[in-house]
Amino acid sequence: MRLSLKPPNRTLMRELETERFILRPAGIREILRDPGGWRTNRNIYRNVYFLKAPMSLAAWLKRGPFPDGQTRFTFAIMPKGTSDVIGYHAVRHSGWRTAGNAVGIHDAVWLGKDVAFEVRKKLMNHFFRHDDIQRFTSRIEATNHPSIFVYRKLGFTHSGTLHRERADPETGKPVDYLLFEMLKEDWMRGPHAEPGL
């Protein structure tokens, strides 16, 4: 877990709204409580963290989506009209004017219902508008077809393949990883950019 002594960036850490969801900035205490059972939810520890087994508390403290309000941001995903949190979306600065994003949906009812697409689209518009981000990138296990579909639907470019990058945590067989990226100027020309970006 990384902490920042600087005050949080309130422009970036503000509540957002999509057609179906409220995206509420999450704090360290909320994530510390392991919301949605991320440490033990197979969908999360396998597909988000590429692990074979549930995370220990120490692993969670090291790898969980803890925000610092400066370079690491996490948003709770809440269906409108409820206080239920069905997942979290994290945005992390990862280099020069570059950010990565990751989403985990722990409420199985919402899997396969375009949550990641809708939420990621809103957050990318938000960070392109209010941060100095010029590029979003992602590294995805080649067998994670739902994530690949979302990135393709958003218009990301496949920028490379890391062949035999890791061993599958369950089978030990080599797994390729796909690299995707979206440049701000390409996003602004695409169908998902919000007016005035």
In short:
This protein has helices at residues 28-32, 42-47, 57-63, 115-130, 145-154, 184-189; strands at 16-17, 21-25, 72-79, 87-95, 98-105, 135-141, 157-167, 174-183.
Key features?
8-stranded mixed beta sheet, globular
What is the H/E string? Answer: EEHHHEEEHEHEEH
Give the helix tally. Answer: 6
**Shape, principal axes of CA atoms:** globular
Q: What is the radius of gyration computed over CA atoms, rounded to a whole number of angstroms? A: 16 Å
The main β sheet shows up as:
8 strands, mixed
Please give the alpha-carbon distance between the first and last residues. Answer: 33 Å
Total E-strand runs? 8
Low-confidence stretches: none
DSSP strand content: 25-35%
- Mean of pLDDT: 94
Helix content percent band: 25-40%
Q: How would you classify the helix and strand content by structural class?
A: alpha+beta
Neighbour order of strands in the largest sheet: 1-2-3-4-5-6-8-7
Report on this structure.
This protein is 25% helix and 30% strand. Strands 1-2-3-4-5-6-8-7 form an eight-stranded mixed sheet. The protein has helices at residues 28-32, 42-47, 57-63, 115-130, 145-154, 184-189, and strands at 16-17, 21-25, 72-79, 87-95, 98-105, 135-141, 157-167, 174-183. It has six helices and eight strands, in the order ββαααβββαβαββα. The chain is an alpha+beta fold and 197 residues long.
Write the layout of secondary structure elements.
Blueprint: E1 16-17, E2 21-25, H1 28-32, H2 42-47, H3 57-63, E3 72-79, E4 87-95, E5 98-105, H4 115-130, E6 135-141, H5 145-154, E7 157-167, E8 174-183, H6 184-189
Parallel strand pairs: 5-6
Antiparallel strand pairs: 1-2, 2-3, 3-4, 4-5, 6-8, 7-8
